[in-house]
Write a structure and sequence with these properties.
22% strand, alpha+beta, two-stranded antiparallel sheet, four-stranded antiparallel sheet
């Protein structure tokens, strides 16, 4: 990765993306019942703390291996008898890696 002709990072796209963080898995839970128990059970299944947005009813996990966490989350949801409204796996982009590694927006000026 270059910044004004200077090498700021080396590696494949996947390696560069891993330098700025892991995958994110976000679950949108249905209904209006309490979130405490599902959040606790999902956190146990993933082995990571959750970031909860109670108003949006989303539970997000930052994980190293998103596909593995996704499978763990699906199993935990099944055990809880919950069908999520949405379930998303998101990986960092090269743009996000550039921003994190250079502190710049990447727009030529």
């Amino acid at each position: 990765m270059l910044d004004h002709g200077k090498v700021v990072a080396n590696g494949s796209p996947a390696q560069l993306k891993r330098q700025v963080g892991g995958d994110r898995v976000t679950v949108t839970l249905p209904g209006r019942e309490a979130l405490d128990e599902p959040v606790r059970r999902l956190s146990e299944a993933v082995g990571e703390p959750a970031v909860v947005d109670a108003e949006a009813r989303t539970v997000t996990f930052e994980v190293g291996a998103g596909v593995v966490a996704l499978a763990d989350i699906v199993r935990a949801l099944d055990q809880l008898g919950i069908t999520p409204e949405d379930l998303v796996l998101r990986r960092p982009t090269l743009d996000e890696a550039f921003l994190a590694l250079t502190g710049k927006d990447g727009v030529a000026r």
